[in-house]
Every structure is written in structure tokens, then in C-alpha cells.
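Rotation project, supervised by the postdoc (A.L.). Task for the rotation student: set up a whole-complex structure prediction and record inputs and outputs verbatim in this book. Inputs entered:
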Amino acid sequence: KQEVTQIPAALSVPEGENLVLNCSFTDSAIYNLQWFRQDPGKGLTSLLLIQSSQREQTSGRLNASLDKSSGRSTLYIAASQPGDSATYLCAASGYSTLTFGKGTMLLVSP
Amino acid sequence: DVKVTQSSRYLVKRTGEKVFLECVQDMDHENMFWYRQDPGLGLRLIYFSYDVKMKEKGDIPEGYSVSREKKERFSLILESASTNQTSMYLCASSLPLLGGGAGANVLTFGAGSRLTVL
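Outputs recorded:
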């Protein structure tokens, strides 16, 4: 059974820092790896999806990488801003399942 | 703007009541999902559907049922609500993987329904 782990569980940084969020998964037979953002009390918003054949995806200040062989994905956020404060979740998709990590709660202080 | 709409943002129900949570998507997606989210436990899949009238159990289906009579609508039913079903419920939809697998392409989530059972 796929297990997805996110480290750290919480992270606090000053505005302007570059930061990396980590996601690891136990079964490398995935179809894609997705990153989401969740604001308190709200639903999830899709940020990036990396297909299993890809190594990375970029959207604005966000860059996500995927290393299937080592079972890892990272989300890089450049020049963090207070508006980036949220919980970030990753999810690994198999053929018939999607398994979420428990998320990293990010706080960016002005 | 495409979206997934959950009918109720907040509900308060009493133990034993029958509860309906409705979800509608306007993206013509085949796949629809119901999750619950609890602190410390993350998102857990209750049921998913990959076509009209088709449904599959997720990780925690006990105490729940679902209905998908139309492609755009996926309903979650709590036949007899209990206090341990107090939670945030999230609906999502996606296109299927190439080849028809129920694993997800980009997921679009609704805003969530926070249910409290007293």
C-alpha cells in the first residue's frame, strides 16, 4: 500500500526566503505526483502535476521535481511571500488510487 | 470558471439523522471523489465514482453510501449520522488517466462541507 510522507510538518520562514518542501512515497509505480495548496477551512487548490515521465514542472515561483527511483518529490518556492502561508499537500497517483500526505503547514512572516 | 460546488459549507445534524452532502461539477469529468479530512489523519478517501451509476469503496466507506445518477452530480449519504462522522468533507473531480484508470489527473476540489454531528 502506498504511503506518502511530508517533512517537515510545519515550517516558519521570514519573507523573501527560498524554501523547499519534501514529499516521499514508498511505491515508485506512480502515474503522477500532484502538489496542492490548502488555506484554512477551505478546499484544496491544485498547484502542479508532474507526470511519471517528467522530472519537473514550473509555475511562476513554484518548481516541483520528481525522482521516482528514490521515491521523492520536492516543491521549491522562490522568494516566499506572506500570501504563500498555507498548508501544502502532495499526492501520489497510482492506476486506481490517489494517496495524500498529511501536509506541511507553511507560515511566511513579513 | 470551472468548478466543483458543494451544496453546504456548514451543517449541524443530530445523531441518527440521515445526511445528504451534494457535489456538482461543470467540467464533464468522469471521476468524482469524496474525502474526509481530520486533524492528524489527513485526507482519507471514502468513495469514488468513475462513471454514472458506478462506485468504488475507498479506504473508509463504513457508515457512508454514495449515489451518482448523473455525470455531474455525486452525493454522499450518511444513513445514520454519528458523532465520529464530525469532519470536513471534500468533493473532487478529475478526468481519468489515459487507459481509463481511476487514478487521478489534475484534481479540482470543492470548498468543503464542515459537518458537525451532535
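Student's summary: The CA atoms of residues 13 and 96 of chain B lie 34 Å apart.
Supervisor addendum: The radius of gyration of chain B is 14 Å.
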